[in-house]
Amino acid sequence: MKDQAHDLRQRMLEQEQNQAHTIAIFSGKGGVGKSNFALNFGMALSDMNKKVLIFDLDIGMGNIDILLGLQPKQSLSTMLEKKLQISDIIETGPQQLSYVAAGTGLSDFFHLDRSKYDYFVRQLQYVTASYDYIIFDLGAGMTEEHLAFIQAADESIVVTTTEPTSITDAYAAMKRLVVHSDRDDLQLSLLVNRASDGDEGEFAYSKLNAVVTKFLECDLTYQGYMPDDPSIMQAVKQQEPFYTFVPRSKATKQIKKLVESFLNQESDSEPDRKFIKRIRSFFSRKVD
């Protein structure tokens, strides 16, 4: 019995240690290119021999499948409604990228009963042990669901453009997150989309970082910028990721640089994978 208990504890410990690196991507408002960035960032990671899964968590308004030009057979909504295994709803896109479509039938995670919560977390646990990276593409704004996934993720990327209203909305989203977070180790970074060049991206970051540092007392790192490249819109119209649609475009070259930098920074840091523990704790407080 002691040997069996020891083996069980060892397997549980190994599963916790082998958790995927989780990344939550969010924005203060819609229309800033968040999902497009999440998709192509994931594709660039996958192209570097990383096993990547994208969760489209913009329930009712998800568009990862639209950007891919694909029609998923199942979704997160149907998984919970029909008690499907998560392996049954994972779709495969270009570059061997895996994704889970959001669906339309689930309007509020916090209206789920306890059994569905437990089932959902168990399914998440299965995939965290099977992938290198899991990217959560969250809808615009800061709902309770968004707060849960951002707080649980190993790190989060907020996407903004250089427009003053977009920067203001990004700050408002981070403010709500910091005010409601019980974590003192939030890893937040900023991605400036549709910048004319690197200088404009860094200028937008410096303005936002100054306000975040002063009023939120929070560290905001600079993830980088994405150029205002017309090939991105061309790819969207063709329902194909710009990473594969225009492989030599400025946008594709830049996202490769961002991913290379991201992987280099990760190799210099100690992993602290506690996503499942955090998301289970957050959900438990909501339903108890």
Automatic annotation (TrEMBL):
UniProt key word Nucleotide-binding: yes
Upper classification of the organism: Bacteria, Bacillati, Bacillota, Bacilli, Bacillales
InterPro entries to which the protein is assigned, alphabetical: FlhG (IPR033875), MinD_FleN (IPR025501), P-loop_NTPase (IPR027417), ParA/MinD_ATPase (IPR050625), YlxH/NBP35 (IPR033756)
Entry-linked Pfam families: ParA
Superkingdom of this protein's organism: Bacteria
Keywords, comma-separated and alphabetical: ATP-binding, Cell projection, Cilium, Flagellum, Nucleotide-binding
Protein name: Flagellar biosynthesis protein FlhG
CDD domains, sorted: FlhG-like
Coiled-coil spans in chain: none
Organism field: Alkalibacillus flavidus
PANTHER family for the chain: CELLULOSE BIOSYNTHESIS PROTEIN BCSQ-RELATED, SEPTUM SITE-DETERMINING PROTEIN MIND HOMOLOG, CHLOROPLASTIC-RELATED
